[in-house]
Amino acid sequence: MHAPHKGVIITAAILAAGTALVAVPAAPSTAAAAARPMENLGRGVVAVRSSGTSVLVTWRLLGLDPDGIGFNVYRSTAGGSYVKLNAGVLTGGTNYTDSTADLTRANSYRVRPVINGAEQAASGAFTLTADHAVEPVVRIPLRPGGNVKFVWAGDLDGDGEYDYVIDRQTSPQTIEAYRRDGTFLWSVNLGPNSTNQDNIEGGSATVDVGHWDGVTVGDLDSDGRAEVAVRVANGVTFGDGSRHTESDNVRQSIAVLDGRTGAPRAKAPVPTDYLADGPMYARFGIGSLDGTGKSLVAYMKNRVGTGDFNLMMTAWRFNGTSLTNQWKWLRGNGDMADGHNTRIVDVDEDGKDEVAEIGFVLNGDGSLRYSLADEGIVHGDRFHIAKMDPNRAGLQGYGVQQNNPSGLREYYYNAGTGGMLWQHVEDGVGDVGRGMAGDIDPRFPGMEVWSFSGLYNARSNQLTEPDTSLRPWPHLGLWWDGDLTMELLNDGKFEKWNPADPKPTNGLPRLLTTSHYGAVNASGPNPALVGDLFGDWREEVVYTNAAHDQLIIFTTDRPTTTRLYTLAHNPAYRNGMTLKGYLQSHHVDYFLGAGMTKPPAPNITYAGG
Fold it and tell me: Is the distance from CB of 367 to CB of 22 less than 8 angstroms?
């Protein structure tokens, strides 16, 4: 653990301007952590045709469901009465294969929980249309428009199911919101200051270019409905037709929008510490920094001439009517390396989230927890924080490096303290542009980590495949096929690593190719969103079609006996769904992989109840 470095400035909104706080690590809480508010989700029932004769129905196990809860599955054909399909109460994986449906007609599915032998109220229903295609896809219509880079999920209308917010990479840019059935809700026009879309120094209202986003979606005031936060500038027109004005085209504000209408519910000015160097690009995310409420976290940068970058990080609290700055942290000339994605996660397991960059971590109050500068960490593109070693206390981190003068390529560390566990150094200086973490080899306890130097078991620092050229491509992970090891998502291909028959990157067994279903990548090799959006604990992947008038959401068509509560009720994972930057895999805060034990119930409460 390392002391703060010269040049770090931390101010709290409740203190007088210029008052400095001593940056010390937060001590672990000795009291029981409060239950943090999470979305009051429904069952998220979804059905896809898994073959010419079968339908796979999946639904959520919720974070607060009691042990022993079971389910009955019901089907209505062509609007008729619902008929129970299963002979006995289902207590395994939350999925069911229906092989008796008349698929020439529309079929609606819903489930009823069973607790202590008593059947509970029915869930919402999902309808599979007559003669539906055999495909692991849910299709949602959109209005015609331009290219979509990012999609965010949030319960905008409070019905317990996710709706969608998308960007349009037009000039000017727009943000649009849709209900889960494709009903259009609203659009925000980001105006003339979004036409300069340079990925380093663009317009003051530009979003979603390079590793920036400046938009996120989540229930910030815990009222049961999600808000949309966006960094705005002069000339933005909101969903209710009102227009945002600033005194010039450089100053900016953060706006919290009503998820149902796109109208601004609150605004606050972006701090002007670096105004002389122009507008600030942003990355947004949401976490529970105090363990009881939600905070909007903003990572913001601009450039000093053609040289170094100013870095400011802030946290904000929305109480339903106003947006208040909780703290502001300025890097100044301190030695804290940032990268291209941010993670908001409880690294010390005290019930409160911290804010992590590739080379440092801030406590939930904005003080510096540690810097990895003394360990030789400089800039890098990718890092992960997860329970990589199930036999070691706490969470672990893994990162890769870009042009580290020491030759450092990748490293593994204690995420709570910053203590280094191992490093890989090679001759020369290299740009390691990708790095991935997940359990893909069940022969070794815990997760594997890999970049381009080989596939390593994280806890043992041992190559699991001696031929380093046979390591998989380190892009994104995906839970899809129902076993406990992770699948891989690489440039529109769902792939499976087989340690008994390793293949080079271009030869891995393929589970699915997204282009076969009309999907196009959102940007480079990336989808627009990966997350557990509905159905059981497996993940969905969101693309658009080539015309950008349809969301194509891939959802698993494979049954599983594995029973896990929805990943969206795991705080670390749900935080990850609010973050973009360079799109990265989300991780739960327990070990999810081969040989895992049953995870503890999350310490949460349902918001808006």
Answer: yes
